[in-house]
Amino acid sequence: MYAANRTDPSIKFSKEACQMLVKVPRVFLKTVLNGCVKYAKENNITYIDENVMKDINDKRKKERK
Hints:
This protein has helices at residues 2-7, 15-19, 26-42, 50-64; strands at residues 12-13, 47-48. By secondary structure, the protein is mostly helical.
């Protein structure tokens, strides 16, 4: 949660959203967090919660196909 909320001061992460990132390897965490912040800024979101994380994951799954 500390790393997530330090990524961009204008974007905050909920505890639930951070729990969804627990399994991300530390090496990739900064990249993943930057991607989440980018998505939030593109969609005028200032608070990333569990629902926003699900939207981000759905978008990533669609891009992979």
